[in-house]
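User: I'll paste a sequence; please echo it back and then give the predicted structure.

Assistant: Echoing your sequence first, then the prediction.
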Amino acid sequence: MDSAEIKLRKAEIEDRNIIWEIIQQSIERRRKDGSTQWQNGYPNMNTVESDIAKGFGYVLTVDDEVAVFAALILNDEPAYSTIEGEWLSNGEFVVVHRVAVDEKFAGRGLVKKLFDLIEEFTKSKGIQSIKVDTNYDNIAMLKILESKGYSYCGEVVLAGGVRKAFEKIII
């Protein structure tokens, strides 16, 4: 992995099948873990196509092979305007949604690398912070957010479920 070239780039419509496959693997993994997250028909292929069309879809590539998908949305998450708790800031922010890792790249620290690259992306755009939410039972993501220095801010309601919300000030 050390010699591999790892890059974050905008997803293109040609990536949609591989992205959808990666998301389906994640949906199945969440189900096997006994999670309720992503078990109600969301996200789906329309979600993927919409993310790409709106310019929200990003992929982390390892030697040009798509390994991780994430949606990065600037300043726009209506659910975040109502939080049971308090955000660290009121400035511009990047929202991270729909993180999914290809099984063959799992366990290699790529989601941590993804968050490093999202921080660089956020800084390069002069944006103040990153906000993210996850299911209370998504232990892997909760551990990553903790290791990356995200602060727990409270709870938000998204897609009919209560999620733990986190924020990290970048600049």
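The mean pLDDT is 94. The beta strands are 6-10, 57-62, 65-74, 84-85, 93-101, 129-134, 151-158, 161-169.
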